[in-house]
Amino acid sequence: MARKASLLVIFLTVFIDLIGFGIVLPVLPLYAKTYGAAGIIAGLIVASYSLMQFLFAPWWGRLSDRIGRRPVLLISTAGACISYILFALACYYESLWGLLASRMAAGVCGANLSVASAYIADVSSPEDRSKRMGLIGMAFGLGFIVGPALGALSAEWFGVTGPGWTAATICGLNLILAYFVLGESRRPESDPAPPPPRLQQITRILKRKQLACLMGVFFLATFCFTCFESTFVVAFTGTKESPGTFSFKQDVRVQNVDEPLTWVQDWHVVSGEEVRRGEPICTLVTLTNTNVINAPKSGRITFENREIAPSNGKIATIDYTRTIAYYMLVFCGLIGAVIQGKFIGPLVNWLGEKWLIVVGLALLGVSLAWLPLANAPHFYLLLGALALFSVSSSVYRAPTYGLISLNAGPNEQGEVMGVVQSIGSLARIIGPLIALGLLDVSIRLPYFICAAIAVVAAIVAAFLLKPADKAALVAEAGLREKEVGEEPPRKINLRGKAVHDGEGVDESQVQEGPKRINLRAKPTEDVGSEANEKEEG
């Protein structure tokens, strides 16, 4: 029972960590751009999380080997909670330095995923380990669906600081649960956290043509996905200075403006700033009464600083496109979950891993080229482009991992997957810097460039990847391990020579075995003949 409770807390830890990530990430580049950051600076703020996580996650893993998984998970969860509080405060004060500090702090404390994997390995038998590792994959999928949904609701209810406070609250509740329920899993015999791949390991793995091709394709695909992730909300919503591709607005109107004199006595907000639903925006004065007008929605308000209310009653407009952008990401997450949960297996059986990768990357290129062409008022075109993007990005990922795993030997799976994670981290660091920098030039430019990259990756995969002959790959991996494996075991012959398994052993390599001491003091010849008789028998 205690073990099941601990697994539930581990699942919730990863799930809530990714909920917080899904709440904050969509609006992070938008806030950075809104607060005056250039594209490259906004990209640096977004990339700082992946950079810090890449640098510090191995250190947290090694620390968990020394002091245990539980304290490291508690520390990292508390750190994530603090980072989201910093994010909310940075949004309130419109501070770029605050945004950067919050994301760097979140990256430094981003040990949850690697240590959670080690925790599951500690408490699982070898035959149950893969199944229980699937909890992390499930937490990923659900986190990227629930996170944007909570982000939309919190932005609507609490305004610009809502996503940060919501993520901090969820992490705080998770910290309390983990403190009281989560036990320590680390045992002296537990496997240590895997070290980061070294340059020699990466070089040796990339010398193998198929793995090098697969990892190159994986890098390009991850780069394209990260560019979309970093730029979509900014391109869709726009900023005060640069309008986006769509705009969803609600008018703020007052009633009973047919009185002879109706004027606005005082504006409580500034045009172009963010307002929260229910927040007072102005005071309306007539000959008979005085009313305070509240914001009907959360979003960016614009108005003409006039004193007299117009005859149609419209005094301001609130742009809530950011909230709709959140729901678009929920739409993408739901489609991706359905594809990965129901269709990947049948598609692999139908097309095979290689051609599923090729088709997925080609469709990814089409969707990325389509996205910037879907402009208002053709909202259905945007939904179609996002649906195709979700399908294609879900289709290529699983077979890419599958082929990488098939091309790695049984005893080098961890090493190869460590290299894959490092390459993915590199793509997530570089992608936002380039994509948000290009966004300053043109909203369409990063999408068209990524579309071309995805098509190039599809062509490379079509010509260089080999279809998965699983029996041949397993045999090849076994042969490779035999070639680089340990020296064959030696048998100690009681006649005084060490004999190797196999034939053709150089006499210089044969070691003297231990001398046999005959307590009955028989002659040496008799001892040898007696040993021979036993062997023949």
Description:
The chain has four domains: 1-187, Up-down Bundle (Growth Hormone, Chain: A); 203-246 and 321-485, MFS general substrate transporter like domains (Growth Hormone, Chain: A), CATH 1.20.1250; 249-319, OB fold (Dihydrolipoamide Acetyltransferase, E2P); 491-536, no CATH class. It has helices at residues 2-24, 28-34, 39-67, 69-93, 96-108, 112-123, 126-158, 162-181, 199-206, 209-237, 321-370, 379-406, 413-439, 445-464, 470-484, 524-536; strands at 249-253, 262-267, 274-275, 280-286, 290-294, 299-302, 314-319, 490-492, 498-500. With 537 residues, it is α+β, with helices and mostly antiparallel strands. It has 16 helices and nine strands. The radius of gyration is 31 Å and the shape is globular. A hairpin with a 5-residue loop joins strand 8 and strand 9 (498-500). The longest helix is centred in the middle third of the chain and has 50 residues, at 321-370. It starts with a helix and ends with a helix. The chain has a four-stranded antiparallel β-sheet, covered by helices on one side. It has a three-stranded antiparallel β-sheet with strand order 2-4-5, with no helix packed on it. A two-stranded antiparallel sheet has the order 8-9.
